[in-house]
């Protein structure tokens, strides 16, 4: 209650004990009825003032809230739902289709998995695409194998899945549990997005991040396209050795901190979307685990490690950065799974030293 209103009420209470009022019915030249009328008018004026202030405040915050909603809708549309400039035509009926970001090259699975293992690979992919928490392994695909052999096959499928499907940003890892021998094997999928709708929203966001980059790439030689991927990914800050989410390609696209594995996965997606013949591989560099890419140019295959550029860029050494893509000692790389010689890539891996 306002001070003026309190004083007015106190004045009315005093009337009852005022000697002059008791004798004459008036005080300060005004009757009780007149004072009560003035108080009533004063109180109504206070109420009107309060209502006006409340209306103005509510209107202001309401208008501000509407503006925030409009801004949010615009940002949401731009981030998640705006039309893509670079359409990506993929076979959505393929068992290897996971999302519109990327379509898998099945070279490794065709070469390194048996027919039955490939069937299990497809079943596992479907469970991940459907966001299933787990699925039961079809042990018939592993008949006449021991539990240790089946475990080895599952691990091999997982390694190949990570290389063939860099677009699986939401899938972290798995745990396999068995009971009753090999007759009941269950694989539990672990995701880094809590709900399927969050995965879908992040997929939309990443689609548009990739689309933004593709829109900046000039139509030029394959070498220059690769260089633009190198420049784009080299601007990311590295935090090497961080596990879980930092190992998926999304951190190289929408985060300030990422890892070499994430950068290699992002490079694979961007290179393939630019129609560059590229493959994501894993191996070692200086005997440390490393993910990188092998790209094909007109005169042969080359190791492409965009993480090198990001590491050099962090030191702000512009001269080394420009050389990073062109003159790295590739003899220090040891590649898993991919037998370069069998694929006609030769045994000399080097970056191009001249522009095309």
What does this 3D model show about the protein?
The chain is of the alpha+beta class and 356 residues long. The protein has twelve helices and eleven strands. The strands form four sheets. It has a four-stranded antiparallel sheet with strand order 10-9-8-11. A three-stranded antiparallel sheet has the order 3-5-4, covered by helices on one side. A hairpin with a 2-residue loop joins β1 and β2 (30-31). α1 packs antiparallel against α3 (32-81), α8 (222-234) packs antiparallel against α10 (260-273) and α11 packs antiparallel against α12 (318-324). The longest helix is centred in the N-terminal third of the chain and has 50 residues, at 32-81. It is elongated, with a radius of gyration of 35 Å. The termini are far apart.
Q: Tags for this entry?
A:
three-stranded antiparallel sheet, alpha+beta, about 350 residues, four-stranded antiparallel sheet, disordered C terminus, 11 strands, single chain
């Amino acid at each position: 209650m306002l001070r003026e209103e309190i004083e007015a009420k106190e004045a009315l209470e005093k009337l009852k004990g005022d000697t002059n009022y008791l004798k004459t019915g008036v005080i300060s030249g005004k009757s009780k009825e007149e004072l009560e009328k003035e108080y009533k008018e004063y109180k109504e004026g206070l109420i009107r003032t309060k209502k006006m202030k409340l209306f103005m405040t509510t209107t202001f915050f309401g208008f501000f809230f509407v503006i925030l909603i409009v801004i949010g809708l615009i940002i949401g549309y731009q981030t998640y739902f705006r039309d893509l400039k670079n359409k990506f035509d993929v076979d959505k009926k393929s068992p290897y289709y996971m999302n519109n970001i990327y379509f898998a090259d099945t070279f490794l699975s065709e070469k390194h998995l048996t027919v039955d293992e490939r069937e299990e690979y497809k079943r596992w992919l479907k469970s991940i695409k459907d966001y299933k928490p787990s699925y039961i392994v079809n042990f018939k695909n592993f008949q006449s194998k021991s539990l240790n052999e089946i475990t080895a096959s599952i691990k091999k499928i997982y390694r190949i899945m990570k290389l063939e499907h860099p677009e699986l940003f939401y899938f972290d890892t798995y745990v396999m549990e068995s009971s009753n021998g090999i007759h009941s094997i269950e694989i539990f999928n672990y995701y880094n997005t809590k709900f399927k709708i969050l995965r879908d929203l992040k997929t939309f966001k990443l689609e548009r991040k990739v689309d933004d980059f593709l829109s900046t790439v000039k139509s030029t030689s394959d070498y220059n396209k690769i260089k633009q991927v190198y420049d784009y990914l080299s601007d990311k800050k590295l935090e090497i050795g961080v596990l879980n989410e930092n190992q998926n390609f999304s951190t190289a696209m929408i985060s300030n901190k990422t890892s070499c594995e994430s950068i290699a996965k992002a490079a694979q997606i961007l290179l393939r979307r630019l129609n560059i013949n590229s493959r994501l591989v894993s191996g070692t560099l200086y005997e440390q685990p490393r993910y990188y890419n092998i790209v094909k140019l007109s005169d042969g295959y080359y190791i492409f490690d965009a993480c090198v550029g990001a590491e050099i860029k962090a030191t702000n050494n512009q001269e080394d950065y420009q050389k990073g893509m062109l003159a790295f000692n590739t003899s220090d790389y040891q590649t898993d799974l991919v037998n370069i010689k069998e694929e006609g890539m030769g045994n000399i891996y080097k970056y191009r030293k001249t522009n095309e």
